[in-house]
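Q: I'm building a small set of examples for a reading group on sequence design. Run inverse folding on the following structure and report the sequence directly after it, with nothing in between.
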């Protein structure tokens, strides 16, 4: 990478990190999978791959085309809100009725299959309109400030930001998993998931009614 393209790379990385670091549905799910130690790195790989695909879509032309059509955005918003409501309902059920303490050596929660883990991570990444707006539209639009090939370098920097963030978050959750494995911490995490999932879903549905 030349010195000329380095500013574009780091600008893309900083923008990506600033958008992704807020505790949203994706991050809350990664946190939960990390504390459960269930398919954490598979979940992270799916989230990173989805972000990279959305960033590439935005930089390659979605922003230049004016973003998503109203009908497509409306359909994605409705589907995303439904996924978030259902996932938040599961967290609310766990919050209201915490599972009994597991027997020594037993798993603290029902284990997801690899297919279920991939499907859930994809749903919270691809069916989340916030992810589309942040990665495809915002980053795609910001890349227009750079001429070719620096716009592509900007996109690579944004993808690197996603890779960096999810890797650090995954390592932190993996390392803290045993220390934070207590009923109080799990109830607090479930409460956070409920607030994030339902709050985002209601905000999305309110936008559809405007």
């Amino acid at each position: 990478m030349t010195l000329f393209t380095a500013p574009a790379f780091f600008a893309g990385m900083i923008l990506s990190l600033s958008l992704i670091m807020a505790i949203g549905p994706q991050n809350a799910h990664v946190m939960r999978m990390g504390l459960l130690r269930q398919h954490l790195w598979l979940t992270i790989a799916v989230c990173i791959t989805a972000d990279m695909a959305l960033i590439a879509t935005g930089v390659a032309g979605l922003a230049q085309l004016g973003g998503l059509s109203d009908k497509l955005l409306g359909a994605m918003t409705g589907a995303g809100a439904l996924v978030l409501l259902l996932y938040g309902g599961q967290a609310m059920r766990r919050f209201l009725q915490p599972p009994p303490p597991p027997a020594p050596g037993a798993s603290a929660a029902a284990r997801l299959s690899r297919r279920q883990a991939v499907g859930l991570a994809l749903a919270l990444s691809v069916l989340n309109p916030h992810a589309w707006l942040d990665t495809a539209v915002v980053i795609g639009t910001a890349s227009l400030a750079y001429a070719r090939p620096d716009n592509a370098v900007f996109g690579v920097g944004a993808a690197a930001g996603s890779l960096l963030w999810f890797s650090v978050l995954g390592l932190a959750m993996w390392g803290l998993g045993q220390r934070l494995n207590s009923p109080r911490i799990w109830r607090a995490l479930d409460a956070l998931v409920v607030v994030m999932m339902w709050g985002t879903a209601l905000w999305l549905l309110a936008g559809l009614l405007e």
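The longest helix spans residues 70-96.
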